[in-house]
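Per reviewer request, we include the raw input and output of the structure prediction for the construct analysed in the revised manuscript.
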Amino acid sequence: MQKTCNDCCQQFDVFDADVELYEKVSQVFSGKKYLIPVPEICPYCRFILKGSFRNEHTYYRTKSSFSGKSLISVYAPDRDCKVFSYDEWWSDKWSPLDYGKNFDFKRGFFEQFAELFAEVPRINLIQDGTSENCEYTNFGAENKNCYLTLGLRCEEVYYSIDAMISKNCVDCLHMVASERLYECVSCQQCYNCAYLNRCNQCLDSYFLESCISCKNCIGCKNLRHKQFYIFNKPYSEAEYFEMLKGYGFDTHEGVEKFRKKFEDFKVGLPCLYAMHKLSENSTGEFLDGAKNCHLCFLVLMGAENCRNCFVIGRNCKDIIDSNSCDGELNCFADGALASQRILFSHFIRNCSEILYSMFCYNCQNLFGCTGLVRKQYCIFNKQYTKEKYEELVPRIIQHMQKFGEWGKYFPKKLSAFGYNESFAYDMDPLSKDEALKRGFNWSDYRQEVEMGDSSGSGGEANCVVCEVTGKPFKLIKQEVEFYKKQGIPFPKKHPDVRIEQRYRIRNPNRFFERKCMKCGEDIVTTYDPRRLEIVYCEKCYIGELY
């Protein structure tokens, strides 16, 4: 069936498989079924809505609501919320159950949850697992000496997003098992490279796109197993290094001049419609071992029967409309890891059977809770017996149905972040007027310099004024050493501007039905038909390479 999105007013398809999966994930609470209605907004607007509740890289200097000590937080000081440091939040010096409330059947659920959410303290930054010397990192785990980075098991990585098992990299987006990279996007197992996009196993190279196993290459696209190539043409080793010297990659002028030349060059070469690896009956982008997954972006090995999802972990099954998740039977979940049967919830860890809750760890059977750890059978942070909990849940769901709330995600205004601070802005930048018109929050709060002078090791920093926004920022000692060692010119743009530019390099999480521009086969791709790229299906693309 086709519907019209209540948010963007565009038409979208609701597939039979979508309806079947909504019905399947509705089976929660000891087998009782509370049918989830088909959403009234399109998959992309659902994705943006969830993203508006996530701040990945906008940081502030603020004070703890518990101790008053200075700390770094993703919550601006003007926000009406309580913020504790990581150690304070996890201590036994306070209890989230102290904020428990009775459910009022005369008022709407979201109105009541907003009141609870405003009162219960939040962690200043999200850190899973043990990290060392990473005071200025958010959504990180098992990292060491990282700064303004969202990463897992990384070391000495700065100003990067979605970094995994990597070392000594700066200004990267979506990199895996790589080292000494600068301004690279969607790269795996690369070493000592700069300005790469969608590359694997490349070394000692500059300005590559969609290359695999290349070394000492510059300005190339679609190459496989090549060395000493420039603009897809072979050179001798001596010629290659002589030309490399002449490009002036150690200056901003040299980099920008070559960037423009490379952009003109690669437009005439085809793009593969999507990055799929060992995937079966699936549509999306960056799929690895996916089976029966539809319109998904960044899916890891073993995921099965997932639909409309962004970043899905290994061996996931039956997940719909969710971001940054793993587990099974999750719907409208954002940040639900090692969890199952998570519905309409944000940032849930090691939990099961959770509805309309936020920031909960190691819990079971929660409804409308926030900030709970190792709890079960709670509603609005109030403890109940199993029998009383199972009596109240159906009544609350029926109440939400009467108010038109059941099956909808949290309202936009409930987000603690302005749209311009959120992941949603990274994906779909809107002006202040546009964001407010669509019902999102907006933040005008500014600090002259948000961060401290180093990543914690006592290094000195230089202050720079962004040439785009006029906003000051600092170069920490560690990144200065990286630029000097790699022959990279010091940045002139604020880290937020650089992050936004990298997101524009990577295709957005929006899918288009179009045809291969060579054979006419139907394809689903993130390449917008209005753009200039030549887009081929896999068969035609491979035919061009060999």
